[in-house]
Predict the structure.
Amino acid sequence: MSKDNQILEDLNSKEYEHGWSVDFETDEAPIGLNEDIIRWISTKKEEPSWLLDWRLKAFKIWQGMSEPAWANVNYPKMDLQALRYYSAPKQSNKPKNINEVDPELIAIYERLGISLNEQKRLQGIAIDVVLDSVSVATTFKETLGKLGIIFCSFSEAVKEHPDLVQKYLGSVVPMTDNYYAALNAAVFSDGSFCYIPKGVRCPMELSTYFRINAANTGQFERTLIVADDSSYVSYLEGCTAPQRDENQLHAAVVEIYAGAHAEVKYSTVQNWYPGDKEGKGGIYNFVTKRGICAGDHSKISWTQVETGSAVTWKYPSCILKGDHSIGEFYSVAVTNNYQQADTGTKMIHIGKNTKSRIVSKGISAGKSQNSYRGQVQVMKRAHNARNFSQCDSLLMGNQCGAHTFPYIDIANPSAKVEHEATTSKIGEDQIFYCNQRGIATEDAVALIVNGYAKEVLNQLPMEFAVEAQKLLALTLEGSVG
Amino acid sequence: MLSIKNLHASIEGTPILRGINLEVKAGEVHAIMGPNGSGKSTLASVLAGREEYEVTEGEVLFQGKELLELSPEDRAREGVFLAFQYPIEIPGVSTTNFLRTALNQVREYRGLEPLDAVKFLSLMKEKMALVEIDQKLLSRSLNEGFSGGEKKRNEIFQMAMLEPVLSILDETDSGLDIDALRIVSNGVNKLKSENTATIVVTHYQRLLDYIVPDFVHVLYKGRIVKSGTKELALELEEKGYDWIKEEVDSTATV
């Protein structure tokens, strides 16, 4: 018992290591949300009129919506009129390439352990970095350009590839989808855009790194990934934010389109500031992520390691429209202290012989609440649809909660849907067994947790997997004194 | 090497061990026998440092150090190994990964460099042959879905890898068929040396045909009530424990 308490105390003493912020000159929109602010953002970004119209339409729709209350989370509502919807570091000249980016900004990322210097970076990963409301740098653009791959900031895509953006924007997550998706459509400031042409296998991992720096500012980025027929891309996303006493809102939208025989792998390591151990501050992470397997034999695979945020509300989903298409969702969600997570997925089977696989591993510690919410829907014409779901919960201590809300909705009798669920506790006997072999308690916890999450961690690209393992260990262990 | 003096321990206020005295020297094999509930497994657990047991009196010296002052992991690093009666499952963690973490922490404690992957694997190969264990088993999740025999063999393999000074085998024979018993015992015998000692906790004499003890102690009601050589084990096998119980109970009541 005393050992259990000791472990729990150690958990709670863990400090967030990315909690610093930097002062730099910014370009900011006035505080508040109205049509004028949306016009202000659109003008600032020199957007074409169709996009402004699209934003305004979304804003009208959003005004008629109310904040969803069905998630198993409880938090003080945020005053959306008290937020700033645009904040960008001031750069005297717009950088044309990475070498022209303000060294002060590059230094921020160096401090986060992310080198934007292409020579210094590990071969094989191109990165787009988003600071507050704007994308500040994209690496390896030229290398990728030779293959016809477009990888750039969303703003740049609007200017350089308006046809592609107009064709796919909102096609997977319509502005009417939900409260936060509508808000995002109205005020989104930047994000990443990626297009892989027909038959091209992207030779490196593409990644976006999100960082919130400014106070009282929401981050509303939008990512759009289009994989044309028979193409392949693996995409990574990481994020951090400074430690602040007030809550901050992050309401992103990610849309993925996969053509026939195309495959997209999307991996996230989410490490937003979770708030302090009393539950003060932290990011509200209200995110809509969805992919459509539009073509036959296409595949979309989501992998997420969620360790941060005060409140998470996130369901990366797949619409399996093409026949023989495959959707996958692998998730590890860790909550500690007063964190709350309501996360899961939706697999919507429309095409014939479509398959989906859900592996969700929740880990709850402290006084946190961790919920899995998942929907498997098989439509009428989806003959021979298959789904396998596995939802495991691991509890540490006796003050946290784990919940599972699976929804299954079948309209075709040939469907085969399997659901397995387990709940377990890290046992004192497991820790003692490790101790008896000479393994210290903190390392024992890391070993057990990583073993538990292995099936998901195995899905991550190598470099990310190592980072994720360390992050899991850090989030759960703290430093044993 | 090990000196237990007047050891008392209880669980949730109920005394289990009521004054154990035992001296174990390097090179010796001691068997602890006794009827169910006599405190055999408790003794093994207390030596290994299990938290549920509260030591209320007595002291234990291990190679000159106060064993009871050390954390369970430091006892292991000093060279105390417990082969569990019921080995614990750790899903998603292979024996290989588990042992690599363990061995390197033990080495660090002893001021040695961690073993690199190549050296670790060659050590594994050497020890695998010793206890006749299959590599496939070692890459599976630790103890998960293992048969009784596989679990026990895996315990002895871990013992071989960690090279303890004092090995405590807690009912290692339970759940083993005769072939597995032979293999496990052979492993233990090969690991014995002049510098190490073994405590075998068992209910039956059977195991002692293979692992021959220098001394046999009978535990009853938390005390060692009779000590002898291997012949004592044979006598127990033949006559059961009742005569000892009667002997002890009658002297206690008179």
Notes: Residues 130 and 210 of chain A are 5 Å apart (CA to CA). The longest strand of chain A covers residues 282-293. DSSP finds twelve helices and 23 strands in chain A.
